[in-house]
Amino acid sequence: MRSGRARLAIDYGSADTTAVLAWPDGTWTPLFFDGEPALPSAVLLSEDGTTVTGHHAWRAAPVTPHRFIPHPRQPSEQRLTVADTDVDPLDLVAATLRRVAEQAHQVAGPGIDDVRLVVPAGWGPRRRTWMRHAAHRVGLPPPQVIDAPIAVAGHLLATGLQLPVGAYIAVCDVGATAEVSVLRRGPAGFEVLATLADPTAGGTAIDDALITTLTTSPPGTGGQRWAVAASLRAGKHALTDHPAVTVPLPDGPAVVLHTGLLDQAAQPVLHRIAHLTTEAITAAELTPRDLTGVYCVGGTARLPLLAQTLTDAGITPTLVDQPTLAAARGAADAGATNTTTDPTTPEEPVPPVRRAAAIALPGFASLALISQFLLTPQWRGSLMYREAVLNWGELTMVAVFAVIACLSAGTVLASTIANRTTTPTSPGIHTGTGILAAASLGVAVSGMYAVVGSLYVGYPVNGFLRWTLLPITPTITAAAVMALIAARQWRTPAAGWSKLLAFPTGSVLTAAAGMLLIQYSLTADRWPHLILWIDLAGRIGGLLLGIGTVMAVVSQPILRLILSAPLAVITAALVSWPASGILGAIYAIAVTTWWLRQMWTHLLRPHRPPQ
Predict the structure, then answer these.
(1) Rounded distance, CA 230 to CA 415, Å?
(2) How many angstroms separate the CA atoms of 479 and 407, rounded?
(3) In the predicted model, what is the mean pLDDT of the chain?
(4) Between the CA of residue 561 and those of 96, 320, 530, 548, what are the distances in Å?
(5) Which of 168, 345, 391, 438 shows its CA 20 to 30 Å from the CA of 318?
(6) In the chain, helix, strand, coil percent, each to 5?
């Protein structure tokens, strides 16, 4: 007799439902329905109002085809009409879950208080709540809803796969439909980076193609069609153990189904699955080389041609052991001795030296520029009335670098705190809070620079605030949006927030050196024999500022080389007192553009939504 209460995990699929019972000691057993571990999700409504499920529904379908529903898992808001009667799809799903619950109670007794439901990763809150209602309707306790790819990843860990923190995998779930998800293992578990689904790329589409290939005339939509579909369904499964099988047809001679015919029917569907996998990896901002592995589950994943098709597309797949039960086993923690993260394997998406440089360099650049700005004003006029000529562009860059330093520091610290927490919902909240706090600190530091400059020079603070706060406003706005995205966890960057918001240090160094040289050329004493060298220093500073601007906007080396030349020439030609503010504004615009590009390419760029 097993000790402890059993956990029940149910993977309710579009075509088949599987379920697993697991115990605290790691032992587990699949539930069998009519001698098979997969219960067809199909339901048939009899004339007396009762429901027939599973294999019994398929056997009764040819007799009463108008009462047969092969795929009850419909959108939550959709209504079905069966035999001129409106039917709530929730009742159909509940019928299958009731069959699972009855079988589970026969095996484990009535003491099941931990139920877990596996759902597609692309489902939203409404459909997840809908499944919870179905479980409640059959008397199951409130279930924990688990994304299918996360459940499969848990199964992989439970069966001994070594996945370090920060590793990326793809799960190709091919049953009656297809769903491909890309996951990243974080310190608190797995997170789904991208999910794409296609209801037309799976076993149902292959069955339809086989029916078209093997029948001389279309069987229509009545009882004949379901009889043919049931025969071909059984024959397709038998091909896993035999090279060829005889498939009886209801109104005609039997046909021979062999692997060649199956591959011919499946090839277009499998090509679509390979394309879907490539699209999902691209949507996660990754390449196949970035993945630790691509793991295939589901009944259709057993087809040998699927592995060959994915390999031809540049993807190396691995068929998971017991592919139809993998999600249910993972959801139930079946056979798992320790699926938690190894505390000795910390997450380091960016090397510590680079993290420190991303924080320190813009901070020191800001201090260097503000020191030069305060010590080198040009005074004009008499002793009674003197006017200071200031490099407002340098003050703008002082504020911009301060904001960059604060955001880099705040994001790294927030990510570190989030990585140490064990609360499932806290990482995004920590990161969003850190970004907002860092942005607020950047505004405060910029305002402090303006006040100090006003007091030191003896001018009203209005002008100083205008050249510090206004240029950083777009960047602060983008940071606020980033914080909202992180807190709501709409989409998490593939490499983590700290790397996403690490502003290019090369741009900071180049632009800061350029502005230092520009200010030196504008304020140095004009000795006759040094005029040429002072002017040359200013032009070199303008060139460096233009190059630093391009480095902030463009990441590809070849584009940087192409765009740097014309912009550097323009900024070098602009070096003068009247244009100093323009030079600082140009760099502030470049920084804002970098933030908007990061937000678009990594977080907001539209991709194909899951079906």
Answers:
(1) 53
(2) 8
(3) 82
(4) 63, 47, 32, 12
(5) 345
(6) 55, 15, 30
Separation between Cα atoms, residue 245 and residue 238, nearest integer Å: 7
Looking at the chain, the whole-number percentage of residues with pLDDT higher than 70 is 83
Nearest in space to 553 (alpha carbons), one of 512, 600, 513, 507: 507
List, for residues 26-39, the tens digit of each pLDDT value. Answer: 788 999 998 888 99
Token code pair at residue 148: 């299918």
pLDDT, residue 340, reads 38
Q: Give per-residue pLDDT as tens, 131-177.
A: 999 999 998 999 999 999 999 999 999 888 888 888 999 999 998 89
3-class DSSP assignment, residue 528: helix
Amino acid letter, residue 157 = L
What's the rounded mean pLDDT across residues 209-230? Answer: 67
Give the residue, 220 or 150, on which the prediction is more confident.
Answer: 150
The first and second tokens of residue 129, run together, are 């709540």
Phi, psi of 314 (to 5 degrees): 85, 20
pTM given for the model: 0.58
Residues 455, 459, 465, 468, Cα dihedral to 10°: -80
Residue of 14, 351, 253, 297 whose CA lies nearest to 156: 297
* Residue 160 backbone dihedrals phi, psi, to 5 degrees: 105, 0
The region, left, alpha or beta by phi > 0 then psi within -120 to 50, assigned to residue 285 is left
pLDDT digits (tens, 9 = 90+) for 72-84: 887 666 677 777 7
How many residues are recorded in the chain?
A: 611
Q: pLDDT higher for 147 or 24?
A: 147
- Decide if 200 contacts 272 (C-beta within 8 A): yes
* Burial of 319 per CB tally in 10 Å (0-12, 13-18, 19+): middle
Residues paired with residue 250 on neighbouring β-strands, in sequence order: none
The whole-angstrom separation of Cα 50 and Cα 68 is: 12
Residue 356 structure tokens: 């420190």
From the list 394, 501, 504, the residue with the least C-alpha distance to 449 is 394
3-class secondary-structure state, position 470: helix
Q: Which residues of 61-95 are buried (b: 16+ CB within 10 A; e: fewer)?
A: bbebbebbbbbbbbebeeeeeeeeeebebbebbbb
Structure-token pair, residue 296: 């295939």
> For residues 313 and 274, is the Cβ–Cβ distance under 8 A?
yes
> What are the structure tokens assigned to 397, written together?
């860059």
